Amino acid sequence: WDTIPWVSAVPIHSRLHILQQECSCDLSNGSVHGSFWQGCDDRDFISFDLGSGSFMAADSAAQITKRLWESDGITVPELKHELGHTCVEVLQKRVRHGREALEHKDSTIIPFPKTPNVHVSGKVEHKILTLSCHAYGFYPRAIGISWMKGDEIWDQEMEWARITPNSNGTFHTWARIEARPEEREQYRCRVEHPGMPEPGIFSW
């Protein structure tokens, strides 16, 4: 069984919302089973089952997305390929690597959860301050990073990196924002992770 989740923070109406997606697949007796799930702020939104080739909407808003994806001629074929081929290839690769690690007795056990290390940095070029907030060494993969100006989420010009695995099984990512150099003290990085009892606030 293989589950490939990712989480991103999306600013909507000046508030930070967490968009979650998860692709899952399993290969047993030569048959492939897969599903896709999307949620927002820990609430179900829409899901797709590879076997039936159909969507299930959680509410009226998701019904609009369901009708759009069913009729665009693109989303369903892409999901079928992702779940029936790409996900299975990743699953087989992970199983193979897992066997190799066990054979060499070199597998790494990651404590659950592992709190992220956070480093905030900045540099000024052409009178523009670029602030970077790096989170690394965390597990599980789900994490939320946002920049705050004062006490408000300030993500209009924010850039997120993909959440990337490290060789030891943990993950790292970063978020950047551009600001005026004279306003640097107003900006702080906010990090949320299952390994943290409450969101952390970090300054440069």
From TrEMBL:
InterPro entries registered for this protein in UniProt: Ig-like_dom, Ig-like_dom_sf, Ig-like_fold, Ig/MHC_CS, Ig_C1-set, MHC_class-I_related, MHC_I-like_Ag-recog, MHC_I-like_Ag-recog_sf
Listed name of the protein: HA1F protein
Pfam families: C1-set, MHC_I
Domain Ig-like positions: 116-203
Matching SMART domains: IGc1
Top-level taxon: Eukaryota
Gene from which this protein is expressed: Ha1f_1
GO cellular component terms, semicolon-separated: external side of plasma membrane; extracellular space; MHC class I protein complex
Membrane topology annotation: Single-pass type I membrane protein
Organism: Mohoua ochrocephala
SUPFAM superfamilies hit by this protein: Immunoglobulin (SSF48726), MHC antigen-recognition domain (SSF54452)
GO terms of biological process kind: antigen processing and presentation of peptide antigen via MHC class I; immune response
Keywords: Disulfide bond, Glycoprotein, Immunity, Membrane, MHC I, Signal, Transmembrane, Transmembrane helix
Compartment(s): Membrane
